Every structure is written in C-alpha cells, then in structure tokens.
Amino acid sequence: EGGVIKTWHKFISPLDSIPIGYKYRCIYHARNTHFLTPDFDLYDNDIKGILDSLVEFLGGVDDDDELPPLYVMPDHMPAADCISDFIVTRANSDLQIKVFTLTKLFQEL
C-alpha cells in the first residue's frame, strides 16, 4: 500500500578484499553501476559501524539473536549475498544476514 518506505545504502570500502586480477573488473563495475571512479574518497572503512547501521536499519536483533531478512531486487542477489557475508566476516560477528529477493517477499504476502 505504501510502497518502499525506507532504504539503506553505504559505499563500503573493499579494503584489501579484491582478489588479484579483479581490480579492473571492480573499477569497471563501480564506474558503470554507481558512477564511482578510483579516486572516490567517501568510502566507509568502519566495517563494525556499517554492520551496526545495517542491524539498526533491519530493526535490531530479536530475542533469538536473529535479524529479520533483507530483501533485494533479484538482479542484486549475488552482490547482496557477497557484501553481507563480507560485512559480517570483517566485523568479526556471529550474526547471520538472510538475503532474499523481493519476489520471495511478494510470494509470501
């Protein structure tokens, strides 16, 4: 009824996580999807802070230490899965971020 009511977006620094041989591909993707160039300097390096922000966006952790799922566009699933794993791993967290497509959400409604 109300449509999308809030979104979450961060420019997360890849730190040292880009595998050898993938730098060109990463720069190409960043330029073509987000219009970012290699000299972009507004990346967020505080991975723990990023995780805290995401947890807050999702409404916090419930009594079972579980987060509600994160829903993304179907074509964003591979990136969302990868970056959510990256954030949790780099923040040394035990949280599990479940990522589903918006299609899945609509099927459940």
Spatial arrangement of strands, main beta sheet = 1-2
Total number of beta strands:
2
Number of helices: 4
Provide the low-confidence segments as ranges.
none
Residue share in helix: 40-55%
Which band does the percent of strand residues land in? Answer: 5-15%
SS-derived structural category: mainly alpha
Radius of gyration, in Å, reads 15 Å
Main sheet specs: 2 strands, parallel
Shape assignment? globular
Order of helices and strands: HHEHEH
Mean pLDDT across every amino acid position: 83
Termini distance?
A: 12 Å
Describe this protein's structure.
The protein has 109 residues and is mainly α. The chain contains four helices and two strands, in the order H-H-E-H-E-H. The protein has helices at 23-34, 47-57, 77-90, 102-108; strands at residues 70-72, 99-101. It is globular. The model has no long low-confidence stretch (mean pLDDT 83).
Keywords:
109 residues, mainly alpha, two-stranded parallel sheet, 4 helices, 40% helix
Topology:
Elements: H1 23-34, H2 47-57, E1 70-72, H3 77-90, E2 99-101, H4 102-108
In short:
With 109 residues, this protein is mostly helical. Helices cover 40% and strands 6% of the residues. It has a two-stranded parallel ribbon with strand order 1-2.
